[in-house]
Amino acid sequence: MRLILLGPPGAGKGTQAQRLVDKLGIPQLSTGDMLRAAVKAQTEVGRKAKAVMEAGELVSDDIVNAIVSERIDAADCQRGFILDGYPRTLQQADSVNAMLAAKGLSLDVVVELVVDDKAMVGRILKRAEEARAAGEPVRKDDNAEVYDERLREYYKKTAPLIGYYYAKDKLVTVDGMQSIDAVTKSIEAVLATATA
Ligand code: B4P
Question: Residues annotated as region NMP (predicted)?
């Protein structure tokens, strides 16, 4: 199964991808996590990505495409994977098609988490608060000001992917405003139908 989770920042892509890993037996490929790891390790990619991510903007397509391309060649991805936060631009979508086509593969399904994006800032601020209370590091992009920029980037660059995948008959939608458990159940239900 090769699956994409799509939705605005805070929609729950990462949360749901983690839950699907065990159920589907395939890895989660989170470009956000990969980029944060690169920033922490102070690699060349991390140095380029740091300020961009902290400003709530999207890291360049070339950088992100390269890290995904390398990752999907790994042995654990040969049975499938969950793309979490990737693709985020039409150029990235074309790129993942090309990566898969080169292997004679294609995407199975794109799950759009449909949410009231105005409410998502509340989730982001809650995560920041919880991290602070636990003495853990707070993500630099988890604040109201940067969230506004993340949302602007989403509408400008990522939202066009909804029509793109709809036209390819790959898109299914799930109500992302439900509880975390209920969203997981809904995703499982649409996957069962979409891949039957
Ligand atoms: P990401 O790490 O992908 O972060 P996100 O889109 O903001 O979060 P997500 O939707 O996964 O929400 P989550 O489950 O965490 O991106 C961060 C940055 O990395 C981007 O801004 C960009 O700079 C860069 N980047 C990443 N990928 C890129 C790409 N492909 N191209 C270019 N740049 C890229 O949930 C958020 C919170 O909500 C959590 O606290 C969670 O517990 C809570 N929550 C989730 N579901 C809930 C529910 N149903 N009810 C209540 N709370 C819920």
Answer: 30-59
